[in-house]
User: What shape does this take?
Amino acid sequence: MKIDQSLPMEYSTEQNRLNIMGFWVFLGAEIALFGTLFATYFTLVNRTGNGPGGAEIFEIIPVMTETLLLLISSFTIGLGIHAMRLGRQKASVIFITITLLLGLGFIGVEIYDFIVYIHEGAKLQTSGFTAILFTLLGTHGLHVAFGLVWGILIIIQIMKRGLTPETTNKTFIFSLYWHFLDVVWIFIFSFVFLKGMM
Assistant: This one.
């Protein structure tokens, strides 16, 4: 395995560069998935039937809390990658851990949101609007939950093997995934929640 010392460690081998390129292709498929969910949401947003609409069930404080948690987590994963590139293993692990704790907080607030929606009469089967709302939010939430498990596995590998070309590559790819989830949430925040509250 030839290592190019002139590149950041996560890009330092041909295999690492191929892994990153392959992950960008995977993110293209994820964009298609969420694009389809958003298109369906915009089609069904006014199909509330006898159930509540967004203005009746959305609350600004939980939504702002979720948004802040994810935005801060995007910053902390960036700090983790920066520490990784400086060869600071402990700092990198700490920042990744903080990222995961913020993600866990996000999941907790989202579960609270779902309980509120159900209490307000918005269940999966209530209307076209509630069906796509739960599907869109649930799909994003499951992606975050998957990210939490993935992040824990990354931390375990870094602790066992140190910062190697392989572990830095995996960590960098994980950071791309996490930033992608944050970007998707910004669209959800803007076009589902803010627009729905107006």
